[in-house]
Specification:
360 residues; Rossmann fold; 2 domains; binds adenosine-5'-triphosphate; binds the ligand O=P(O)(O)O[C@H]1[C@H](O)[C@H](O)[C@H](OP(=O)(O)O)[C@@H](OP(=O)(O)O)[C@@H]1O; binds magnesium ion; inositol-3,4,6-trisphosphate 1-kinase activity; ATP-binding; ATP binding; isomerase; magnesium
Length: 360
């Protein structure tokens, strides 16, 4: 029933709980009549329920499972079989959506199909290509075919996990020997070293300004540069790569992107990938003012979002209420279930891969 007391299972790493001050989130949830229960992944989940919803960040396990790791596969298997047996439990976010998101190439491809990306909105994804192995001639050919220009950023295909942020800036074709494979190579866009993080909860979001990589002009002869993609745009980044030389500034320095367009970007990603808790990293192309989407992150840090615990708790409450409303509508319309276990899933979080693709 919408408005009634709910039980929310959650699993976040200890590090993530600490970073988010999860005890504040627990208080905010309780204020909204939601009882948070930490899930022990080593015990059967059904014995820890019943749950109306589950909030989690299992991306590291998903990334490990993709790499064939036993622990990752086991955790996911248990989790997914629990969800299969309890389809009325709302999962924030669904494992299927996160599987897409941890692969940078798949994520870029899905967003690229959104109607939002056009000349009128001036939103784009910088040209990119997936390179599987270090075969120089093939890679040069693929790069040219995909219209990826130099400088370019080489990013690991898998976007989460320990080695997901090791990136290489390359300035010419011979730099391809320095990339770590498999990777996605993407044209580097000069943006005056400013990045905008859009921290989203469903369709609502907050914009936070961050440091970013400086401009590069006339740099065809530079040697490749390795960097940690996860560190450059942190609030207190101390990277020399993020220090903009005033002489290299192009166009207008701090032209903020139009909030209406940012709003549409968040909506498009919420719908096309089916995510509820996510961050979008955008930059403004210095020479044109166009907005480039360069990264989408699952359940990011939300650092800089005012009253994040309250906003997250409001979001969870709304989603749980929506979910129980949808469940009771199916019950009335089909007479197929009793409102507990038999209902089909309706929300974005639980769309199947086929449904998601057709929405893109
Ligand atoms: N196409 C691009 N053009 C210019 N700069 C870029 C581009 N792509 C990424 N960057 C820069 O590289 C940094 C890391 O890129 P990206 O966000 O894709 O990596 P990440 O490791 O997934 O980071 P995180 O997950 O912490 O957001 C960005 O913060 C931005 O400064
Ligand atoms: O500055 P933000 O909040 O974007 O930093 C995020 C980062 O973008 C990634 O989402 C990280 O997730 P992983 O790639 O899965 O490691 C987040 O790490 P986490 O430890 O908070 O989950 C960063 O906060
Ligand atoms: Mg990322």
């Amino acid at each position: 029933m919408p408005g009634s007391r709910k039980r929310l299972g959650y699993w976040l790493s200890q590090k993530k709980c600490k970073k988010l001050s999860f005890s504040d989130i627990e208080d905010a949830l309780r204020e909204r009549d939601i009882e948070p229960v930490k899930i022990d992944l080593e015990e059967p989940i059904d014995k820890q329920g019943p749950f109306n919803g589950i909030l989690h960040k299992l991306t590291d396990f998903i990334a490990k499972a993709e790499n064939g790791d036993d622990e990752g596969q086991k955790v996911l298997q248990y989790f997914e079989s629990y969800i299969q047996d309890n389809p009325s439990v709302l999962v924030m976010d669904s494992i299927a959506c996160l599987r897409t998101l941890i692969n940078r190439y798949k994520t870029y491809c899905i967003i690229n199909k959104c109607q939002l990306l056009n000349e009128e909105t001036a939103v784009f994804i910088p040209p990119f290509v997936e390179l599987q192995t270090n075969v120089y001639e093939t890679n040069v050919h693929l790069l040219r075919l995909s219209k990826v220009n130099f400088p370019a950023v080489c990013k690991p295909v898998i976007a989460h996990g320990s080695s997901a942020h090791q990136m290489t800036l390359i300035f010419n074709e011979s730099g391809l020997k320095d990339a770590i494979y498999p990777c996605v190579v993407q044209t580097f866009v000069n943006h005056n070293a400013v990045l905008y993080k859009l921290f989203a909860l469903g369709r609502k979001y907050t914009t936070v300004l961050r440091p970013s990589i400086k401009n590069f002009n006339n740099c065809e002869d530079l040697a490749s540069i390795r960097f940690d993609g996860g560190e450059i745009s942190k609030p207190n980044s101390s990277s020399r790569l993020a220090v903009q030389d005033e002489r290299e500034v192009n166009g207008h320095l701090h032209e903020s992107p139009c909030p209406k367009i940012l709003n549409r970007i968040v909506q498009a990603i919420n719908e096309s990938i089916g995510l509820g808790l996510f961050g979008v990293d955008v930059i403004v192309e210095a020479s044109t003012g166009r907005i480039a989407i360069v990264d989408v992150n699952a359940f990011p840090g939300y650092e800089g979002v005012t009253d994040f615990p309250g906003r997250l708790a409001d979001f969870v409450r709304e989603e749980l209420d929506k979910s129980s409303h949808e469940t009771s509508v199916i019950t009335r319309e089909n007479g197929i279930c009793n409102g507990t276990n038999d209902c089909r899933n309706l929300t974005n979080f639980r769309k199947t891969d086929t449904e998601k693709t057709s929405m893109a």
